[in-house]
Design brief:
Elements: E1 2-11, E2 14-23, E3 26-38, E4 41-49, E5 56-60, E6 66-70, H1 76-103
Antiparallel strand pairs: 1-2, 2-3, 3-4, 4-5, 5-6
Length: 104
């Protein structure tokens, strides 16, 4: 098995955290998430992973609530590609929603 892990800064107080494991060219596990820093503490905002045996998205709140949505594409290679593209394209929307919940 081969594990790949990295972090990319995408904003002054935002980052994209990536982890996936491949076996024989196929993704067997992944976790990618958008994180934002508030007052020197990092918070997970949105996470895609396969932690419960299926590909899904977790939308988190500052209070720690989680809304889990399954992905319909259960091929982990395709699900990972979708997750990466969604977080990198929509991170500002997700952050705005997260901060509105914090301030609301």
């Amino acid at each position: 098995m081969r594990k790949t892990e990295y972090i990319i800064r995408i904003g002054p107080s935002d980052r994209y955290r990536h982890l996936h494991t491949k076996e024989g060219g196929k993704v067997v596990f992944f976790r990618v998430q958008l994180e934002t820093r508030i007052e020197d503490k990092w918070f997970a905002v949105v996470r895609y992973d396969t932690a419960h045996g299926f590909a899904h998205r977790d939308i988190l709140t500052i209070k720690g609530d989680i809304k889990k949505t399954p992905l319909f594409n259960q091929d982990y290679n395709d699900a990972l590609t979708f997750a990466e593209e969604d977080l990198k394209s929509n991170w500002e929307y997700y952050k705005k929603r997260f901060l509105e919940e914090k301030n609301g």
